[in-house]
Amino acid sequence: MKTIVSILLIASLLFSCKNKSDNTNVETIDHLENTEKNNALLGAWELVGYYNYVDNEVTDSFQTSEGYRQVKIYTNSKVMWSKYVPSDSSEWFGYGSYKISEGELIEVLEYGSEMMSRIIEEKKEFKHELIIKGDAFSQIEIDDDGNRLYAENYRRIE
Predict the structure, then answer these.
(1) Nearest Cα to 72, choosing from 49, 93, 100?
(2) Residue 2 neighbours by CB under 8 Å, 6+ apart
(3) Beta bridge pairs of residue 148
(4) Burial of 109 (0-12, 13-18, 19+ CB in 10 A)
(5) Where do the domains of the chain lie, and which CATH numbers do they carry?
(6) How far is CA 140 from CA 38, 42, 89, in A?
(7) Which residue from 135, 92, 129, 132 is spatially nearest to 107, judged by alpha carbons?
(8) Mean pLDDT lowest among 20-29, 32-41, 88-97, 111-120
(9) FRET pair for 50, CA 20 to 30 Å: which of 58, 66, 76, 152?
(10) How far apart are CA 151 and CA 141, in angstroms?
(11) What secondary structure letter does DSSP report for 26?
């Protein structure tokens, strides 16, 4: 009797495990693919400088000013950033989701500081060309004609 119960228990366990693996759907696969792409940005990053572009070529580069800090933190699907400008009493931060798709960083902000909330009311989605090289990345603002305007350059701090 114990043998029959054991066999039935093992069979039901195997059957239930098989059913779980058969339930994989396209949404789950898409989420896993997006998570793998987003893993390149996992961690904390600090803004170190900017590039200005004319005719898609860098024409000027400069570092952040003394005391200025801007940090972005990426998880598998969320982004949060904050900015501190010593000469500005305004608070700057934002929170939302992001994804990477074909060399493009797309951030969709859900909420932010008072100043950022005004911007979010008008525009929630921010698209940038994305270039990742090891522990550095650039997010490049593109105009309506596809031309590069300026880049924010970050280095990984964790």
Answers:
(1) 93
(2) none
(3) 142
(4) buried
(5) 25-156 (2.40.128.280)
(6) 17, 19, 27
(7) 129
(8) 20-29
(9) 76
(10) 6
(11) H
SS3 at position 107: strand
User: The tokens 């699907």 sit on which residue?
Assistant: 77
User: Is 29 a residue whose pLDDT tops 50?
Assistant: no
Residue 151's beta-bridge partner residues?
Answer: 51, 140
Per the CB < 8 A criterion, the answer to whether 46 and 154 are in contact is yes
**pTM for this model (two decimals):** 0.75
Distances (CA, A) of 99 to 87, 107, 155: 33, 7, 19
pLDDT digits (tens, 9 = 90+) for 139-149: 999 999 999 99
Say how far apart CA 37 and CA 126 lie, in whole Å. 18
DSSP state letter for 120:
H
- Tokens encoding 89: 């009493």
Q: What does the pLDDT average to over 47-68?
A: 95
Q: What are phi and psi of 149, to 5 degrees?
A: -110, -60
Burial track 73-103 (b if 16+ CB lie within 10 A, e otherwise): bbeeeebbbbbeeeeeeeebbbbbebbbeee
